From TrEMBL, chain A:
Its EC number is 6.3.1.-. This is Elongation factor P--(R)-beta-lysine ligase. One of its GO terms (cellular component) is cytosol. Signal peptide: none annotated. Pfam families: tRNA-synt_2 (PF00152). Keywords: ATP-binding, Elongation factor, Ligase, Nucleotide-binding, Protein biosynthesis. Gene3D superfamilies: Bira Bifunctional Protein, Domain 2.
Automatic annotation (TrEMBL), chain B:
Gene3D superfamilies: 2.30.30.30, Nucleic acid-binding proteins. Residues 131-186 form the Elongation factor P C-terminal domain. GO terms for cellular component: cytosol. It comes from Candidatus Accumulibacter adjunctus. The keyword Glycoprotein does not apply. It is found in: Cytoplasm. Pfam families: EFP, EFP_N, Elong-fact-P_C. This is Elongation factor P. Its main location: cytoplasm. One of its GO terms (biological process) is peptide biosynthetic process. Involved in peptide bond synthesis. Stimulates efficient translation and peptide-bond synthesis on native or reconstituted 70S ribosomes in vitro. Probably functions indirectly by altering the affinity of the ribosome for aminoacyl-tRNA, thus increasing their reactivity as acceptors for peptidyl transferase. Keywords: Cytoplasm, Elongation factor, Protein biosynthesis.
Length: 316, 189
């Protein structure tokens, strides 16, 4: 690639035009479906507790948001009905071909939708950018059985560790069960997902539920009602059948804060407005967050976000 | 020695891994949707020259390696050790044949080369990318044959053997690329 002066856009202007076309198609779709477009704040006094997400703190104000999820759920609890937005979000220390510390999430919530109904819509929206594509769905458990001959819901941590050492050359010996699962998922399984079609992964381990409710899978095992979409080995979207139980949500936040403390991470302020909204009654709904920059990257056949973002963050 | 977090990893950084000094070749940030992020890192073990691929938990730290590259003058080989000198302070270092490796084939006394020091002792020696050396033995040249593209082996004063064009003769000086071991051109003397 020819080098441009540093002040110029890293993405070719032709790519930015394609991006604008894709955004226009998405906006037309949601408008036609009757969803309300919202615009929630990026700067809030509280933030996510997830130990794996680093919120950027703004002294005297709070945090730049890692996702618009809490604010959108407050709107849902207040009776907004189904809503959508494209939100700029911020995550510290995420740099790479497929990561930029500031990026755009296409996030939407469908009142009374099951996760299956929402997945069908996610595929429809992805096709607005990617064109006609088939679609498959795999259970998390079946992927581990197929690629690693392991049952991720029932096998021992030692078995996961042995598989990780055999397939992924970890530079560490000591890790919890979810870390081994996540390493195997990213190193062994992800590269196979969505080679020629849209690929959903469903029924995650309960320990990886985040803000999804739990349910029993077809074999009677408890699983998280969470799904992810992959295309060409790239993770594109994460969705939940949203947790409605305020008590359960509180105890997940408390567990996150304990984990943060163990890891020596900064404590964060819990979003009490969000919890109060859940307590007042969130309507039964499914929601999803889709990485818009990655969607554009895949639609254009680009290899990195630098090709679709005008000014990716440059560390100095 | 300083420690480096995965956030500081970049190509060329020298770190300790499993007790050996390594240089980072590539570093890729990966994250499986939600959950733990990782850095998939390609490193060259500077002792064995083997390339490793290792996955780190993002945010983990490892110790830096006391490895520096120094330009030094090659002095002589005493039969067991190769001797080098730092031109600024005249400090001398000796390196075994195993440490010098194939670089020995290109080293001419008084020439400058790069010596990699690990904890102050030579770990590896790299000749300059291009060297000019005399041919000490080759088949007689074919006059005027500059077009057929044939080659023949030629042994150089330092011990290396390179393929040279048929028109090149014994006693001539040639320029070679030490990275590929290939002839580049004749040098007019």
């Amino acid at each position: 690639m020819p080098t441009r002066p540093a002040w110029q856009a890293s993405a070719p202007l032709a790519n930015l035009r394609r991006r604008a076309e894709i955004v226009a198609r998405i906006r037309a779709y949601f408008t036609a479906q009757g969803l309300l477009e919202v615009d929630t704040p990026q700067l809030c006094p509280a933030t996510v507790t997830d130990p794996q997400l680093e919120s950027l703190a703004v002294a005297g104000y709070g945090y730049l948001q890692t996702s618009p999820e809490y604010a959108m759920k407050r709107l849902l609890a207040a009776g907004s009905g189904s809503i959508w937005q494209i939100a700029h979000v911020f995550r510290g220390n995420e740099f790479g071909r497929r990561h930029n510390p500031e990026f755009s999430l296409l996030e939407w919530y469908r009142v009374a939708f099951t996760p299956e109904e929402l997945m069908a819509e996610v595929a429809t929206v992805a096709r607005l950018a990617l064109g006609e594509l088939g679609c498959v769905s795999h259970r998390y458990r079946d992927l581990f059985r197929q690629h690693l001959a392991l049952d991720p819901l029932t096998c021992s941590s030692a078995a996961l560790r042995a598989a990780a050492r055999a397939h992924a050359d970890p530079a560490f010996d000591d890790a919890d069960r979810d870390t081994w699962l996540e390493l195997l998922m990213s190193a062994v399984i992800e590269p196979h997902l969505g080679r020629d079609e849209l690929c959903f992964v469903v029924d995650y381990p309960p320990s990886q539920a985040a803000l999804a409710r739990l349910r029993s899978d077809a074999d009677g095992q408890p699983v998280a009602a969470r799904f992810e979409l992959y295309f060409r080995g790239v993770e594109l979207a994460n969705g939940y059948h949203e947790l409605l139980d305020g008590g359960e949500q509180r105890s997940r936040f408390a567990a996150d804060l304990r984990r943060r403390n163990e890891l020596g991470l900064p404590a964060v302020a819990i979003d009490e407005d969000f919890l109060a909204a859940i307590d007042s009654g969130l309507p039964d709904c499914s929601g999803v967050a889709l990485g818009l920059d990655r969607l554009v990257m895949l639609a254009l056949g680009a290899e990195s976000l630098q090709e679709v973002l005008p000014f990716p963050f440059a560390r100095r | 020695m300083a420690t480096y977090s995965t956030n500081e990893f970049k190509s060329g950084l020298k770190v300790m891994l499993e007790g050996d000094p390594c240089t980072i070749l590539e570093n890729e940030f990966v994250k499986p949707g939600k959950g733990q992020a990782f850095n998939r890192v390609k490193l060259r073990n500077l002792k064995t020259n083997r390339v490793w691929e290792k996955t780190f938990k993002s945010g983990d730290s490892i110790e830096g390696a006391d490895v520096i590259d120094r330009d030094m003058q090659y002095l002589y080989n005493d039969g067991e050790f190769f001797h080098f000198m730092e031109p600024e302070n005249f400090e001398q270092h000796q390196a075994s044949s195993a440490t010098v490796g194939d670089a020995a084939l290109w080293l001419r006394e008084q020439d400058t080369c790069t010596v990699t020091l690990y904890n102050g002792a030579p770990l590896a020696v790299s000749p300059p990318n291009f060297v000019e050396l005399e041919i000490v033995q080759t088949e007689p040249g074919i006059r005027g044959d500059t077009a057929t593209g044939g080659t023949k082996p030629a042994r150089l004063s330092t011990g290396a053997t390179v393929k040279v064009p048929l028109f090149v003769n014994e006693g001539e000086i040639i320029k070679c690329d030490t990275r590929s071991g290939e002839y580049v051109s004749r040098v007019k003397s």
